[in-house]
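Hey all, quick one. A colleague (J.T.) asked me to put the adenosine monophosphate job into the tracker so the inputs and the structure tokens live in one place instead of scattered across chat threads. No bug as far as I know, just bookkeeping. Sequence used:
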Amino acid sequence: MSLLVVGTVAFDAIQTPHGKTDKIVGGAATYIGLSASKFYNKINLVSVVGEDFPKEAIDMLRRHNVNTKGLQIKKGEKTFFWSGRYHDDMNSRDTLDTQLNVLEGFDPIVPESYKNCECLMLGNLMPSIQQKVLDQLKKRPKLIVLDTMNFWMDNFMNDLINALKNIDVLTINDEEARQLSQEHSLLKAAKKILNLGPKIVIIKKGEHGALLFNGNEIFYAPAIPLEQVFDPTGAGDTFAGGLVGHLCATKDYSFENMKRAVIIGSTMASFCVEKFGTARMNGLETKAINERVKQLEGLVRFKSFKP
Ligand code: AMP
């Protein structure tokens, strides 16, 4: 039993109102793995990097219980690179550059020992690659979660629509939900997206929390209010990592437990944004996570009353 994570392992260059970084280690699968590792310890990674990717970063993943047997290292090639600039509100950003590099010809190979996974997290990546990973599994995992972004909608919408037919949960941000559904209302957007295949849609709204849609049921998880957000990069992936890590650890895929998973995702994202890149996630302690989950509970708990 294991959690299989596929997604980018990348270099990022980030600009926020608080400063900028040169190339630092990032990528959807990196954030997902680090976050999920706080809840579950059998995480298997499928991804690709170039020869330029630092060995220390791979060691860092291994130290967090992320098995890197399925991480291909391409000689003479360059790692996927993404650069983004956040607006003053820190909730929206512009992509300045996306260099696919090793991703361009990436043929994901799922090692035999990964093929019986309990949960599959299809992190942000080319939709056809996400599908190829799913196709190699021996049996359908108990839970398939997919995350994506506008870049893939702009360039590979048909492949994405096909991949959505096979999954359980889609995590997506509000702007992307509107783009995918062509609806402004998030309620209408969620309904349309649910008709595309997923049983559950989670719409992430940055500092405004996340909405979980399951048929006609809706649950809302706020974000932890923070005095300062340094770098929102990876918050969505960290959210997804916490969510799937908790679900895989508890093996309970009910809507009730899905609500807890969204609270955990929201909590994990609150740590990610406190420092640049993966700095805050690396070595984050369980005690701190538990305290914030309690804080979130306190934020939404109230005695019911008759008006
Ligand atoms: P998030 O802030 O959660 O949307 O994730 C940011 C991470 O996604 C960064 O570390 C990037 O390396 C990675 N990323 C950016 N663009 C893409 C893309 N088109 N496909 C996959 N990963 C990407």
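Adding what we noticed when we looked at it: Residues 8, 10, 12, 26-28, 82, 98, 124-125, 149, 151, 233-237 surround adenosine monophosphate (CB under 6 Å). DSSP finds nine helices and 14 strands in the chain.
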